[in-house]
Every structure is written in structure tokens, then in C-alpha cells.
Amino acid sequence: MNSIDLLQIIEDLDIEIICKSSSIEDMEIHSSEISRPGLQIAGHYDKFVPERLQIIGKAEWTYLSKLPSNERYEKLDKFLSFTIPALIVSRGLPVFPELIDLAKKYDRTILRSDKSTSRIINETINTLNFYLAPETRVHGVFVEVYGVGVLITGKSGVGKSETALDLVMRGHRLISDDIVIIKRLEDKLIGKSPEITRHFMEIRGLGILDIERLYGVGSVKNDEFIELVIELELWDQNKEYDRVGLDEQFTEILGLEISTATIPVRPGRNIAMIIEVATRNFRQKRLGYNAAEELNKRIRERGISRRRQK
């Protein structure tokens, strides 16, 4: 099961640490669901899931603030007796002294965010969904071409990085070279680069290049949705390549099928230009126009017309 360190969530969401448990560095989150423990604070613990992150908003805080100190202590005491990963207080609300005392008693982590309750909930869920999403890694190059995430695959030495460099020089953006981390977010795939190699590219004969420094911040991007796969392969004169485009190809990644085009590579072919055209053609298909189908339609209509004339 995927998990994410609590400290990573705290860093990503810029949350203030009020009380730190002794296990905060080892605490892992396994669920993207979170809880607002209003019912639990009121005394109802049926179906309570303590393994989730807990968030106290304005409603829960107002209820607790109106209680006498001893009653507030009693209700929070039972709540914090459960092993929760952390409790987040939203809206920058003051943290009750009883909450701090009990956090120390039970060794719990108390956090605080200045953001509204709905916003911190949404950001927390989105962050958890991203980190806990199914993940795989593929060997290839990932670029953004005309706003479309294009994953370029193929055997080592076929020219993937050189093609991507040519695309960058044409004004498109590099996301990852060599290794692409892919996560499935519901019915979409998002790809990014390993942090250590982000914005770097290897070109045989030149070595490692820093694309951001060479071509500017507009030449790189951190992540993008994968919509098109371009598979490069060395030209095989004995193979029959698709010359019409009526048959759709797909590549399955993490259970999703991604539209795929196979491009044979040989000297004299401008692969970067062909990928640009393939991307434009993909966008047209997504808008409902397929050039191959249109040509096929014209041919059928011409045949019908000739038969009628006879």
C-alpha cells in the first residue's frame, strides 16, 4: 500500500506545528480520506476512523469554546486517547490549553493552518490523493507539445532525447528525460520527473545538459497529463507501417489506454516535426475530426456516385 510521511504533508501544505509527537518522523498516512470529529467530540464514536487525519474547523472549535474547562478537557481526553496521526486546527484559531496538555499526555501531534476549513480540507485531500495514487515508472522522455503531454518511448539509442531536444528548440517544453514517474489520478495519468534529474537531459556525445539554464524557464515544466504516446522504432523495411491511420493504437498504462502512434526512424526523417504534426492531428481527433475517416468517406461517396452513373 502506498503511504506518505506526515512531515511531507506538513511541508507541502505549510502547516504550523503546535505540538510534536515523538513518532512524527515515522508517522505515515495511508488514506486520502480525512475526518472532522464533531460527532466524536460530542461523544459519539460509532464508526470513528482514528487512522485518518483529523481537522477541527470553526464549528467544532466554537462548540468546544462554549464548554467549561473541565468538560472540554474530558471530551478532548477521550478523543486524543485514540491513536490519530495528527489533528489540524484550521483558520489559525487559538489552540485550547487543554488540547496542548492532552497532546503531551498521549503523545499526539497538533497542527494549525491559517487557511479556511474547506480550503485546507480540499488541499489536504488533493495532496494525499496525489501521493497515494497508483504509480509506475517508464523509460522514455516526456514533453509538452502544443499543450498536450506526449510520452516518447522506444529502445535505447533510437533518438528519444535528441528528438525531445529538437522539440524544446521549437518552443515546446521538457518535463522529464530518461525516467518518467507516472501516477494515475482517477481516469487520468500525470507524469513528472524524478526530483534529482528534473530539467536535466542526457545527449550522447555531449553529456548532461541543464535545459532550464540553456533555454530558460519557459522550456521546462514540472508535470503534465499524459494524453499521447509516441513510440519510436528503427525503420524495418520488412515491416508494413500504417499509411492511412484508420486503425487506432493504444498503450495501456496503469489500467488506462492512451492513444499511441508508432513512428519509424531513419536518416533524413524530421522526427520532431512529425511529432508536432501527430500532436496536432491528435487534437483534431479529440475535437471530432479524423482526416483518415474523412478521406475514407470521400472515397466511398465517389464509388457510390460512379455506380449510380453506370
Can you give a write-up of this model?
The protein has 310 residues and is an alpha/beta fold. The chain folds into two domains: 4-131, HprK N-terminal domain-like (Udp-n-acetylmuramoylalanyl-d-glutamate--2,6- Diaminopimelate Ligase, Chain: A, domain 1); 133-294, 3-Layer(aba) Sandwich (Rossmann fold), CATH 3.40.50. Helix content is 35%, strand content 29%. It has helices at 6-13, 38-41, 58-65, 69-80, 97-106, 117-132, 160-169, 211-215, 271-286, 291-309, and strands at residues 4-5, 16-19, 28-29, 34-35, 53-56, 87-89, 110-112, 135-145, 148-154, 173-185, 188-192, 200-203, 207-210, 223-234, 249-253, 256-265. The strands form four sheets. The chain has a five-stranded mixed beta sheet with strand order 2-7-6-5-4. A five-stranded mixed β-barrel has the order 8-9-14-11-10. It has a two-stranded antiparallel ribbon with strand order 1-3. A hairpin with a 2-residue loop joins strand 15 and strand 16. The longest helix has 19 residues, at 291-309. The radius of gyration is 27 Å and the shape is elongated. The termini are far apart.
Profile the largest sheet: 5 strands, mixed
CATH architecture descriptor name of the largest domain: 3-Layer(aba) Sandwich
Q: Over all CA atoms, what is the radius of gyration? A: 27 Å
Question: How many angstroms separate the termini?
Answer: 69 Å
H/E series: EHEEEHEHHEHEHEEHEEEEHEEEHH
Sum up the overall morphology in one term: elongated
Number of self-contained structural domains: 2
